Predict the structure.
Amino acid sequence: MTEPRTDRDAATTSTGQSAEPIRYPENHVVGIVDAPEQLDAVATALRGAGFRDSEIDVACGPAAADELAATTGRSGLAHVAIRIAERLGVSDDEMEVKHRYEQALRDGQLVVSVVAPTAERKTLAAQILRDNGGHFVNFLGRFTIESLLR
C-alpha cells in the first residue's frame, strides 16, 4: 500500500520493498479482491465514478504482506502500545483487520485501498467493491473501523 508502485492497467500497485513505512490508511475504504480480473473491474468502476488513479492503491504479493507485517501503521506512543500489546498476545479490531489483509496478500489475493474522506465517497467506494466481487470491505477512520462487508 506504499511505494514502490508500478503502473498497471487496473490501478497503482504496491509489491512491497518501499522506502517509506506503511501508514494507517485513515479515511480509506479497504477491501480484498480475489483475482486480477476483479481488480480490473473495480478500478474501471472506481474511475467511472470519479475516483482518480491517485486515490486508488493496490497491494499484492508476499513482499507487500511482509511489509504490512513489519509495521503497526502508527507512530509514536500508539506504535509502542500496539507492539507491547502484540507481544502480550492482546489483540484489538485494528490488529485483527490488519492481519486479515496481510493473510489475503499471502494467499495471493489483492488488497484495494480507496481514499474516501466523505460519507458519500465511502458509500460509493464500498458499493463498487461489493458489486465487483470485493469482500472484507472496511472503512478505516481516524479512531474507528467500520465493517462495510465481510
About this structure: DSSP finds five helices and seven strands in the chain.
